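Batch queue: ligand-bound targets. Current item pairs a single chain with calcium ion. No template structures supplied; prediction is de novo from sequence plus SMILES. Inputs echoed for audit trail.
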Amino acid sequence: MKNRINQNGFTLIEALVAMVVLTIGILSLYTMQVTAVNGNTTANRLSVATTVATNCYERLWSIPYNDAQLSDTAGAKTHTQAEITGFVLPQGVTGVRWGVTTWLNNDNIDNDQDGEEDEDDETDVKLVALDVNYTDRNVAKTVAITFYKN
Ligand SMILES: [Ca+2]
Ligand SMILES: [Ca+2]
Ligand SMILES: [Ca+2]
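Prediction returned. Tokens below.
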């Protein structure tokens, strides 16, 4: 009969300790879950923005050199996706902007920075800098690509 009560099951203290341990475990799982979901969102948004950048690059690459969408902006990113007919911004992407700098062989500038001004290879080349702006959980981010059009 001695210690009968203790041998019949868990004491209240044991049950409470078990509950605390279980609660801590569940909270850790929850934190891991939130981290995983956030990571997935970040990866997804980056992936979408990169796809948009690639699509815009391919489009600008394929249009004629003198197309209005490639007009010189002296580097300022004043061209926008509004110039691309039918372009729809995917969710999370806030805008596409690009700037164009025309290289010339009579501008007294070493455009390709190889140490020599105005050679033949500085003619009929446009440097295009493209930004895809997007948001990732309310943080503004940018995917930037630069390419040469000739
Ligand atoms: Ca040069
Ligand atoms: Ca030049
Ligand atoms: Ca050169």
